[in-house]
TrEMBL record:
It catalyses: Endonucleolytic cleavage of RNA, removing extra 3' nucleotides from tRNA precursor, generating 3' termini of tRNAs. A 3'-hydroxy group is left at the tRNA terminus and a 5'-phosphoryl group is left at the trailer molecule. One of its GO terms (molecular function) is zinc ion binding. SMART domains: Lactamase_B. Belongs to the RNase Z family. The active site is at 68 (proton acceptor). This is Ribonuclease Z. Zn(2+) 1 binds at residues 64, 66, 124, 191.
Length: 284
């Protein structure tokens, strides 16, 4: 079963706390891709404290240009360069263009070995991308329907290719196990207020990592005016996307602990509010 590893390096917002760093999430999939989501100040030290070399990253995906999400990027680029590697940076269009002019390898999407990453515009105070990950895990075949098929035909069917067997064309959908889904998805919002256009663009996801800057002690209209969300906003987004797992992050420094967020998140079927240094493992 595919295993996705998430390490929450920094779960805070714009103002740091001694116990809550600036935003940064490390993602490692079963194909060996290593992606850093946002690069808050000091993120490379958090990576190294967990035995992860900055130079080993496949991509750094920046949601937007606010300082709490990018101040760690120069250090990462410098460290990787000294190791003889050029980091690939994903960013919103204008930021990607600016980085490219500065000699950084930057783009707005990526595709590599059964995984794709693309920008979905979210609703913040500046140009901002949520990052939608999609993995092609192939088809799980109903063995009773493919008995006697050549091995080569089985391999193609799993990969999503139609084959000819015994003079007839067999499509993967015809012999897949009932209810099996070929794709797995994760959507990371970065900073955003409630954003119907983003939800429409994403459609559905297995895992939703949603910002929850505020709990329920701030007027929703005030949070939205600042381009941020409450816990209840994040829950509504998870319901709309049918997320199996909701993960809340980007917690304001006004909260001394996560108790209030966790109490509110408990109303969702499966929600997690991690602290800095927590790993979340997802079995797809």
């Amino acid at each position: 079963m595919p295993l996705l590893k998430l390490l929450f390096l920094g779960t805070g917002g714009a103002v740091p706390r001694a116990d809550r760093r600036m935003p940064g999430i490390y993602l490692e999939d079963w194909e060996g891709h290593r992606v850093l989501l946002d690069a808050g100040e000091g993120v490379q030290y958090a990576l190294m404290a967990n035995g992860i070399s900055p130079a080993s990253l496949s991509y750094v995906a920046i949601t937007h240009g606010h300082e709490d999400h990018v101040l760690g990027l120069p250090g990462l680029l410098s460290t990787a360069k000294m190791a003889g590697k050029s980091l690939k940076v994903l960013a919103p269009p204008r930021l990607a263009s600016a980085l490219s002019r500065g000699g950084v390898e930057a783009a707005t999407s990526a595709s590599d070995r059964h995984m794709s990453i693309r920008c979905v515009e979210v609703c913040h105070t500046v140009e901002a991308c949520g990052w939608l990950f999609e993995w092609d895990v192939g088809f799980k075949l109903d063995l009773s329907k493919v008995e006697g098929f050549p091995k080569q035909a089985l391999t193609k069917l799993i990969r999503g290719e139609a084959v000819e067997v015994g003079g007839r064309v067999v499509r993967p959908e015809d012999v897949a196990e009932p209810g099996h889904r070929r794709w797995r998805r994760l959507f990371y919002t970065g900073d955003t207020g409630p954003c119907p256009k983003a939800l429409e663009a994403v459609g559905w996801t297995d895992v939703l990592i949603h910002e929850a800057t505020f709990a329920d002690d701030v007027e929703p209209a005030k949070a939205h005016e600042e381009g941020h969300s409450t816990v209840l906003d994040a829950i509504e987004a998870a319901k709309a996307l049918g997320a199996r797992l909701l993960i809340l992050t980007h917690i304001s420094a006004r909260y001394d602990d996560l108790g209030r967020h966790r109490a509110l998140a408990a109303s969702y079927r499966h929600a997690v509010v991690p602290e800095d240094g927590d790993w979340v493992l997802v079995r797809f």
